[in-house]
Write a structure and sequence with these properties.
single chain, 347 residues, alpha/beta, ten-stranded mixed β-sheet, two-stranded antiparallel sheet, 11 helices, binds S-adenosyl-L-homocysteine
Length: 347
Amino acid sequence: MKEILQDLSRQEIEALVAEYGEKKFRAQQMYTGLMQGKKVSELPVSSAFRAELLRRFEDEPVKIRETFVSSDGTKKFLFELADGNLIESVFMRYDYGNTQCVSTQVGCRMGCKFCASTLGGRLRDLTAGEILSEILVVNRTEGGTQKSRAVTNVVLMGSGEPFDNYDNVVKFLKNVSAEGGICISPRNISLSTCGLVPEMRRFAGERIPVNLTVSLHASSDEERKRTMPIANKYKISEIMDACAYYFEKTGRRYIFEYTLIADENCDREHAEALAKLVKGKPCHVNLIRLNEVKERALTAADEKAAYRFLGVLEKNGISATVRRSMGADVGGACGQLRASYIGSQNR
Ligand code: SAH
């Protein structure tokens, strides 16, 4: 694979322009073009310089291979990377703006039992520029510009564990929020982790004010181990300490994700245990009914169970919501589209 121009910050593009002896103002033109979602071959530079760039950099690191539109307006994009790998991303319209859910790795190696992303393991990390390009491409396709964006919010909840690709994800967060770029504020970005404790602590020191979301899905280590292998490595108590540290360093509340799985974690006792665990903490709980994955023998909790669970949390004074499920008819859950696509290709 060639290098990825979208990996570079504005300053790095200035250095590149200088390296090739091009005029300084080219840097701004190139950067603006990239932020508009242009391919390298579409950048407003001389044909000789463009040829140099194309020798060294991928013309289009993230290409739309297919688009699936759900009845609720949610769009699921299947992207092809320069090396032929496939990733996916979801674009959801809400009253307050549009949220794009991006992938951070090709596949995932965390092994959560309910998740489709992890079915084939992790193939590779995405670079900062590939993650950014997921957004640039969708923003352009949806009619957004650099100033008037179609993508207003971003969640790192597609395939991959963001903290298993720490450096590239942090670089992406810096580039996506940089002044003069696509400029999406960290406050409009949510980063979801299955709870890699050392990286959570390290991230607190970066002082990038995103919304930190932690996938909990259970209130005791024994129960968590049943669905999340990472629970063998880090205890819930260590995750809680890392969250407290994050709050201490950044002053930002954090969010717990709790996927409701029938006969697994959604009885009244589970709700009481979760309430006890998070009570008094500066956090919010997001309840999600499992999106059933056909390769996994797990069933979603029904809606009644979800609202009963919510009721117990509320009675205990916990800030919590049941997340509306979107795009179910287009394989909205993590990794479902890629998994089914690869599956159909192999048949
Ligand atoms: N690796 C990160 C981010 C990706 S997943 C993490 O673990 O947080 C984003 C969220 O979707 C996580 O909370 C994950 O546990 C959840 N999730 C994965 N598969 C799901 C499914 N089939 N139904 C509901 N939620 C799911």
